[in-house]
Amino acid sequence: MVFSSTIFIFWFLPLALLFYYTVQHKFRNTVLLLFSFLFYAWGGFEMLSIVLVSIISNYFTGLLLRDSKTELKSKIILCGGIIVNLSFLLYYKYANFFVDNYNNILGHESIVIDKILLPLGISFYTFHGISYIIDIYRKDTAPQSNPFDLALYFSFFPQLIAGPIVRYKDVHYQLKERKIDLELFTEGIKRFILGLGKKVLLANMVGRIPTMVFAMKEQELNAYWSWLAIVAATVQVYLDFSGYSDMAIGLAKMFGFQFKENFNYPFIAKSMKDFWTRWHISLSSWFRDYVYIPLGGNKKGIFRTYFNLIFVFLLTGFWHGASWSYVLFGLFHGVLVMLEKIGFGRLLEKLPRALTSIYVFFVVACGIIFFSIDNLDQIIWFSKSLLHFKTPDTHHHINLYLTTEWFIMLFVGLIFCFPTAEFLMEKIKQASIRKGVEIAFILSVFILSISELANTNYNPFIYFRF
C-alpha cells in the first residue's frame, strides 16, 4: 500500500483518522500503532516481523545503554546494537548482491541462495534504530521506557516506507504531548494533497518518458532521446520523492506530529555541496552527523577530509540500492563535491545564481543515469549516446506515445522543480479572495489526482528499493 493509491486515500486514511479522533486521548498512540502495523503488514506479515524484531532489539539496547556504568561497556553495547541493525540491512538488502558478485569473480555458482525479498523501508527504519541508540550513547536523548511508544516511533506509517528519516530526539516529546487543532489538521490536508498532485499529476506523467527511452535499444538511441530521458528522469525523481515527503509531512500534521522538511528546492543550489544540504535533507544530515563527523570530518587534514567525503558519498550511493550503479552514483557526487572543495567552488561563488542553477541541474541530470540504469554496459552505451547527434527516427514507435500532452507536463514539472508553487501560493494569500482561490486550487488538484489514479495503472513507487 502506498499513499498515492485509492485504497489508502479512501479506506485506510479515513478509518485511521476516524478511530484516532473518536477514542480517548490516552488510546490515540495505540490506534496509530495498530494502523501502522496494518499498513506495513499489507505487504506481508513476514515484513512486519522484521520491523518488530528491530524495535525489540533497539528497545533493550537503549535500556542497556541507560544502565551501563562504564564507558567501555557502553561502547560494547552500542557496537552490538549497531551490528544488529546493520545485519538486517546487509542480509535483506545486500546478500544477493554480495553472493552474485562473489560467484561472478569465481566464474561459477560457489554459493547458491534463494532470492531474498526486500522488506519495504528497511533502510529507513534501520537508520532510525542506529540514530536512536547513538543519541542515547551520546546522552543527546533518554531511552524510551514505554515499548509501545518506541514501536510507534519506528513504525509510524507516514514515514515508515519512504521517509523522511525522523530522529527520535526530534519527536520523542510529541509521542506524549502534541498539538492537535483544526489549523494544523487543515494544513496537513493541504500539504498531503499538494504532494499527491506532485506525485500523480507530474511525476507519474513525466516518468513515462524515461521509462520508454531507457527501454530503447542501443542502435535506436541518439542525443535527442537520451537528453530528453535524463532531464525527464531528474524531474520525475525530484517530484516523486519530494511529493512523498510532502504527503508524509502532511499526514503527520493530521495526527498532530511535526516533521522537519526533507527538500528545500535543491535545483536553486549554488553548488553540489549546497545541493546536498537541500536534497533529501534527512539522509544527508544523517550521514554527516553519524558517519562524516565521527570519522573526523574536516578536522584531520586535507587528505583525510577528502577520504571521509568520498567514503560517505560511496555509502550514500550504496544506501540507495544494492547495485554497482548506485556505488557509481555516490562516487560521481562525491567527486563533484570534492572538486568544489579543492577550488572549483570558489569559481561557482562568483557566478550568478541562474548559471549555478543550470550547472547543478546539468550535473544532477548526468548523474541520474547511474540512478536509473543498473546495468553497467547499458550505462556506458547510454552515456555515449548523449553525444550521438544523429537525426532522430521520426517513425519510431515511441513517437506514438510521447504526445504533446506529455511534453507540456514535462515543462510544467520542470517549472515546479523551482519555487514556482511557493510563489503562486504567496500570490494567492495576497489576493483579496485568497481563501476561495486556495480552496478551489486544492480541490482541483485532489480531483484531478484521483481522476488520474482511476484512469491509469501507471503509478510507480521509485523508492521501494530503500
Describe the structure.
The protein contains 19 helices and no strands. It has helices at 6-22, 28-41, 45-67, 71-106, 122-137, 147-155, 157-160, 168-171, 182-213, 223-254, 272-275, 281-292, 302-320, 324-349, 353-372, 376-385, 404-415, 420-430, 434-455. It is globular. The two termini are 15 Å apart.
The total domain count is 2
- Mean pLDDT score, rounded? 87
Proportion of residues in extended strands: under 5%
Instruction: Give the helices and strands as they follow along the chain.
Output: HHHHHHHHHHHHHHHHHHH
Residue ranges: pLDDT <50 for 5 or more in a row?
A: none
Radius of gyration: 23 Å
Amino-to-carboxy terminus distance: 15 Å
Q: Sheet with the most strands?
A: none
Number of strands: 0
Task: Tell me the structural class.
Answer: mainly alpha
User: What global shape is seen?
Assistant: globular
